[in-house]
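ok so for the tutorial part 2 we go from a plain amino acid sequence to predicted structure tokens. step 1 is just haveing the sequence, like this:
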Amino acid sequence: MESVLSKYEDQITIFTDYLEEYPDTDELVWILGKQHLLKTEKSKLLSDISARLWFTYRRKFSPIGGTGPSSDAGWGCMLRCGQMMLAQALICRHLGRDWSWEKQKEQPKEYQRILQCFLDRKDCCYSIHQMAQMGVGEGKSIGEWFGPNTVAQVLKKLALFDEWNSLAVYVSMDNTVVIEDIKKMCRVLPLSADTAGDRPPDSLTASNQSKGTSAYCSAWKPLLLIVPLRLGINQINPVYVDAFKECFKMPQSLGALGGKPNNAYYFIGFLGDELIFLDPHTTQTFVDTEENGTVNDQTFHCLQSPQRMNILNLDPSVALEILKENLRMFELVQKHPSHWPPFVPPAKPEVTTTGAEFIDSTEQLEEFDLEEDFEILSV
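step 2 — the prediction. this is what the tokens look like for a chain of 379 residues:
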């Protein structure tokens, strides 16, 4: 294993279809629900992109499972993309979409706490250790490449142990989003008769979420909606291109996971027919918390111009991340289909350890059921 990983230690993937320089155009660039005029707002665009948390391959972290790999180079790219997507959800949840990051500038304590959720340690909720070991329950060996659907299922299960963020993660099945099932996941019992509610608050936004969970969590959990799709057989069917691009215009959008076979990217926007993405295929050294409890975040933001690829070069297996709504690439229904098994909201297994310690033993992963793989959309 170590000999295989060593050849990826300093890997930076380069493809000829990446278009490095932005053209001189009047077209709008869309990044996670926000638009930028490229000709006059290029610096603002690059600042918006650099504010996204960037997770890449790392080396020299503690061996996964005690005896496993100490680097995820060559196999962990989809896991890193899943981390980027979820980190963006948490930033919207606590800091708001308009929050910006500046190098060497002191950041809110919520930002540091979000970042620490993803450090490469087994006691961090969404670490590479936790994701790789939870993947065992999805039929993936540690060190094996994940697809976007597997990452979605892993994040859904890890979120059950994340009491601070208290996210309801819904992963659609058979290209169908069921409103009734989402309500069952998001609704929680009120703390008192005065806080009862069968629906989410009218003003549930990222800005008021940052004030703490007490304002709303007694009635409704924030929803992270993930829609695994296959938009073609060997390549994306052009009929889905416009609908796929519309996803990046939604204010609730968290982007998409996908890329090429065995090469995953986190897609955050588009310019024309080119998708803009963050690339995890750079190997950096493990970073831990410092003595004062903070994390040096300089390697967790991409300060270079982001890469792009033509949308038709994207592998048809993708996972869309949306906070609230959907588009016509999948079906939205109100009621749970009668021919489906009954929907049971996922619940944390009854164990006496923390989430991190729970995943430390893969034998206990048997309590989680395996999920179906992708379905192919018909035209």
